[in-house]
Amino acid sequence: MDSETDSAGxxxxxxxxxxxxxxxxxxxxxxxxxxxxxxxxxxxxxxxPRLFTLGEVEAITAxxxxxIKKLEExxxxxxxxxxxxxxxxxxxxxxxxxxxxxxxxxxxxRPAGVPPCIMAISSLKGGAAKTTTAVYSAIGxxxxxxxxxxxxxxxxxxASSFFQLQAHKVEVHxxxxxxxxxxxSVLPAGDGRGVYDAINYLQGTTWSNLAVIPSALSxxxxxxxxxxxxxxxxxxxxxxxTSGSEAPTAxxxxxxxxxxxxxxxxxxxxxxxxxxxxxxxxxxxxxxxANTLIIPQHAKMLDLDSTASFLEMLTxxxxxxxxxxxxxxxxDHAALLVTDYQQEQGKxxxxxxxxxxxxxxxxxxxxxxxxxxAVIDASKQFLxxxxxxxxxxxxxxxxxLRATSNIDQVVSDIxxxxxxxxxxxxxxxxxxxx
Length: 434
Ligand SMILES: Nc1ncnc2c1ncn2[C@@H]1O[C@H](COP(=O)(O)OP(=O)(O)O)[C@@H](O)[C@H]1O
Ligand SMILES: [Mg+2]
Prior knowledge:
By secondary structure, the chain is of the alpha/beta class. It has helices spanning 3-39, 54-61, 65-73, 94-103, 130-143, 158-161, 177-181, 222-243, 256-261, 281-289, 301-325, 347-360, 373-379, 397-429, and strands at residues 52-53, 80-84, 87-92, 117-121, 148-152, 203-204, 210-213, 270-274, 292-298, 333-339. The longest helix has 37 residues, at 3-39. The N and C termini lie far apart (78 Å). The mean pLDDT is 87. It binds adenosine-5'-diphosphate and magnesium ion (MG). Residues 126-132, 158, 277, 339-340, 369-372, 375-376, 379 line the site of adenosine-5'-diphosphate (ADP).
């Protein structure tokens, strides 16, 4: 045996024992995660839809109680009744809110020919409040009448947990993994119709016009699968070009995901993508699909620096991919959103916020998402403040109301971004703008 094969053999043995150790570690970690999730406050049972009082419905829809009563009499709404002393109180669901908007012609309009707003929520930094922004925007827009979908693209699956879809229970074929990779080896046997159409992956939530595609750790292989497939695709393209024959695959793998969303164009107005905190393959596939980009970030120097790096990497990457791989992104509207903003932290914070607002101008949404104990308390049970009723915690009523009124403003700004995209795209295709 020469020394080269000898050392290759030693390497191989070393590699095998590494793999054995890692596999053992993986097994233990999995059991710990399963055990820990049983101990944690994982919600059990079926979550009930949030019930709204008549006053809340009036505030959300701006439709008068008299008109709401008329819809009840017509059998269009069927509120739940609860006897409170001598009065019978009525409670409405998000489906009732949607029906009220529909009956009174109050549903948001999308200009003809304009695809849904595909909004990537992305930044390099973990903890920038991407998931919080994605989840609150999704529920907030759904309550405003947008037919909304939230696609969890982070293998950690935090966004999914808010809809009772725990990442460790979600199967890989239920995630966006097959849509991004077209890897059919993970699909259950079936007739294969529409297997790469995102619309078939949506799961309902307790919010009537909000659906979700969950995520799971098993989605992670996208990060190496997609670049490998893209490389293969390019080699085939080049070979075909030099030999003058036809290339076997016509579609660039980085476009698979974008293509899968086309199945949702007729039935959805907004598709929110909760991205992982990296500039990997998933993020590139998301940015190739998105037409709107929201970058959440804290009002801190270090975070601003990270956003600057993110934008630098993003522009470089999009340029290089366009040139080398003919992957063109089409982002009509991009904006920063200041998140987890602590008003109490004094002048330096507010100075930085003012500077960000001035310098970024239209590129920064006007309302910062305020740091709030109400958001933290709700998230401990995988809930949002939308799920909590005002009377649930009488002691924290002020904190709750402060949070919900801020969140209402933040959602208005996000809705503004959706409308800006609609207008820009409508103008560019010569469509009508309302
Ligand atoms: N407005 C807020 N008030 C209080 N806590 C917040 C707020 N926004 C985010 N957080 C908390 O910050 C942490 C990180 O947020 P998350 O949305 O998961 O960030 P990312 O998705 O960017 O990693 C979470 O624990 C979340 O509950
Ligand atoms: Mg996240």
